[in-house]
Request: fold
Amino acid sequence: MRSHSGVNGSKVRRARSRDFDGAAGDGRRSGAVASSLLSVRSAVCSLLLVLIICGWQFLLLTRQVEVPDAQVPGQGNVNEAVWHYLGLHEANLTAQAFQHRDLARVVTALSNDVRQLREDMLAFEGRLRSVAKTEEAIAHTEKVIEGLKDKQNEEMQELHRVEDALNQLAKHGKELEDELALGRHRMDLRSTELEKISNPNDLEDGGDTAEDGASTPTSPAGNANPEALAREKAELQRQAEAHAERIAMESAREPGDSSGRSTDRKRGEWPAAWLQRFSAAELEASAQEAEKWRAGSKDMFVYAWNGYKRRAWGADELKPVSGQRGRTWGNVGLQILDALDTMWIMDLHEVFDEAAQWVEKDLRFDFQGMVSFFELTIRAVGGLAAAHALSGRSIFLKRARELADKMMPAFQSQEPFFPAARVHLKTGQGAGGWFKGTLLAEAGSVQLEFRYLSQVTGDPKYQRAADRAMRSVIKASGDHGLVGWGLSKTGPPRAINTHITFGAMGDSYYEYLLKMYLQTSRTEPEWKDQWLKAMDEMQQRLIKKTRSGLVYIAEENKGKTRHKMDHLACFVGGMLVLGARELPARDVRPEWESVGANITETCYQMYHRQPTHLAPECVALDPGQAPGHDMVVWNNAAHYLLRPEAAEAIFYMFYYTGDPKYRRMAGEIYEAIERHAKVTHGYSAVKDVRSARPQLRDEMETFFLAETMKYLYLTFVRNPQDVLDLGEFVLTTEAHPMRIHRPSRAQTKAQAKDAFLARAPVQ
Ligand code: DMJ
Reply:
């Protein structure tokens, strides 16, 4: 944890004690000076006083002995006068003696005062000295505490290093185990082969099914010759080897970064790709303009989080208007798990620590009921995995794995190997959902999370299950890239409807194809190849434009185009620019970036054109209509659920281009949410974005804090590449960053070979 509070606190305390030391020293110095000044001043005063009194007495005396001319007429008179003056003189002397006595008293009193003052000063100096000693003692204790803290940190780091080393060892052990298992499996295959060669009649049985779903060799149509079969298998192995070698070589040659980002850029410098279009002054001005939104979006998060903490701590969801606990999704504190990494990214480390404590002590996976496999994966497993990826704390990985282990049995063990729509957390039993088959997005958007678990634990079972489901989806697509959102849930993989959409039910499958490729450092081209196919078909069949130039992604059902676009589909804007900047140059289609930018603009218009500046759930587009009339909001889809996809597209566009206009789009969305959705305990979904003062739904989905807030905040920070580097992380469909895996050459080859054999018609 990157808590700075302790360090800052002691820094402040040290500064304070330094100030106090200074003050004490100054006090001591000024005390001594004051004391000596006082003594000199008193002495000078006394001297002056004596001089004044003496002078005055002298004056008096000389005036009294003066003989006036008129009074010296004769001798007799002179005697009289002398006696008279002597009398006067005597009186004067007496008076003078009294004055001298008074003067002596004053001088004694003054010197007493001076002595007293000196004593007081000495006592004060003594006290100051003892205060300084106490300060020294405090400073020393603080130093000792800091030393202890440093030591503790070092020990924690050492612990993490040991943990990492252990993980590496475990991973290595698992790899060896895998290799062993593979070797055994191959031996089994060979002995089965040999048996079949020596007993050709068995071939008619059609073969058994191996435990892990890989088929044992069956006779290809029209080929019952055992020698030919053996030759074919050997050829297949040779091809697989050659394929694996090629993939390993290509991935080693991969540029690794086609985004235009300068890899040796220092933190705080503007990205080279941004500077190609904007001056440093323009970028600086944009960052300054966004600062208020950055601070505001952080406050927004804290406000909603505090409401949840106050009213629904530990619940899956909060109802932000009534302050009640919201829907139950598995009783796993879903809001906490989904928001962890946003806290980390926003540097809210105290809040993060508090949530981490809850994860460690209170999180339970014992809900007695069915929960959505997909939602639990993307929000809970993904949330925990991302908290692990960012903080490196093993508790998150431990809990993520615990949950995934409970969910694993819900992956079908036979074709099509999809995960069940729902899972019972106590028993691991799977069950169907509202749809008779499997939803495309549900089968094809759990891979990043499960693969991350395999990558960091070294246990391949999570990745195997998830990849197998993905390969089934690809099989179900036939020769195409696009596929209907309804898939069969039994038997060989196939689509059971023709409804093609990048909105609800389909969306994140396409997103995961691209991101799976990026997640393993571009070493598994099978995902990218399928994504490229899907993008080419999307471009040809679904990307449309209205007369006024609004570019959108239509849907297709039973061969007919439907001119509607879900808010959900806005993610495509971000996905296209991600592909354009992160794929090897030879794969990038020139139109991706501009189509991505245009879709992002349309999604922004979905907000901007409403009186609330909030977007509806879906819009219908009319390509033939005049400008301003080409986007229609249906009555049954006029609500805004605090969804993130437009903010997501804006974030990706900004991340790669640095264009200030994207910050302004995001700023407008942030302000609209603040104005219309803020309620007593958080932020609420609104009923109708067309109404200037919309009513509220009393719902705050967990993705508001997980995604919407994260994307907005990341768009407002000075440079998102310094906060979350997309060369290091890939974001899941719930915006959870998974650290990009860097497989070794041997791992790349093994994976490529497995993939080749998994797709081969005959094994
Ligand atoms: C999120 O849970 C995920 O982004 C999911 O893929 C689609 N729907 C919501 C957000 O709208």
